[in-house]
Amino acid sequence: MTGQHDGVGQGVAPPASSTDLATVLPPAEPRRSAVVCSGLTYRFGTHTAVDHVDLRIERGETFGLLGPNGAGKTTTIRMLTTLLRPMEGSVSVLGIDAAAQPMRVRRMIGYVPQLLSADATLTGRENVELFARLFDVPRKVRGDRVEGALAAMGLTEAAGRQVKTYSGGMIRRLELAQALVNSPRLLVLDEPTVGLDPLARTDVWEFIAKLRETADMTVLMTTHYMDEADTYCDRVSLMHRGSIRATGTPGLLKAMLGDNATLDDVFRHYTGGTLDDNTETGGIRDVRRARRTARRLG
Ligand SMILES: Nc1ncnc2c1ncn2[C@@H]1O[C@H](COP(=O)(O)OP(=O)(O)O)[C@@H](O)[C@H]1O
Ligand SMILES: [Mg+2]
Asked: Is the pLDDT of residue 281 over 70?
């Protein structure tokens, strides 16, 4: 979680005057939230996919956006990552407005999309190098960054092999390494473990958790798996039909429902109980997409 680093530490003699103070302390930097959405809205035709979403994610949090298929999670994330322009409202990342300065926002973000993005005919290392060039990682540090990202995801030994020899869990970790290569301040993961078996899912999460301990990074993720959200998220939002229905720590949200409530109960309470909430064709498309992803992950 975020800590307060402002103010003068104990044992430091107070400066003689306020003029001195300005030279001793670093320039005042407001503690910016990692993500702020205000009235964020997006429509596909007449269908409102994201409906006036207000959301604040603090720096250093692991935040879960939960909701059934079609709730609007991916559309929210695509606005945040500057791939879609908000139709109403705004979203800012570390104080930078995504619509006004998309390139600045992109440089601060690592994004693992719902669809797979690794090239099976390249080696793991080549895939990560490709992203390093795409993200304009300076040449001098590129090699170190690539090796660092591979190591952080436990892929150093497999890095020289073609990706088509990787297991599903390894491919997901490779995609994480790709997203990490530009040292993002905000890591955005859309359904990072869909289609993986329980062991591979745990594996992916353990690597993300370890990363969180070493880097000053905020993680925003979507998932269908309530057990994952419960274990790994500091806070979650329940999204349903384009709106945020509840936000809080998993513990608080469960406690609000009753003594033995699980996060599954919370999910059902706020989303009407189904994993698939589409009134339109999107549901089927999303399920097909998830199946395709699952097949590719093997
Ligand atoms: N490219 C698109 N064209 C038309 N409708 C879309 C498109 N993408 C998403 N939608 C619709 O917007 C709604 C929200 O979708 P999405 O953000 O993908 O939800 P989630 O990620 O929560 O499953 C759904 O009803 C979906 O069918
Ligand atoms: Mg989605």
From this structure: no
> What CA–CA distance (Å, rounded) separates 150 from 180?
9
How many Cβ atoms sit within 10 Å of the Cβ of residue 108? Answer: 16
Ligand 1 site-directed mutation target among 41, 43, 47, most atoms within 8 Å of CB: 47
The pTM of this model reads 0.81
Amino acid identity for residue 282 in this structure:
G
Looking at residue 44, the DSSP 8-state letter turns out to be E
pLDDT in tens, 97-120: 999 999 999 989 999 887 767 888
Ligand nearest to the CA of 237: 1
Instruction: Place 224 in a pLDDT band, splitting at 50, 70 and 90.
Output: confident
Residue whose structure tokens are 């929210």: 76
Task: Ligand 1, residue 286: give the atom nearest the CA.
Answer: 23
Q: Which domains does the chain have, with CATH numbers?
A: 60-71+103-297 (3.40.50.300)
Residues 6, 10, 15, 17, CA torsion sign: positive
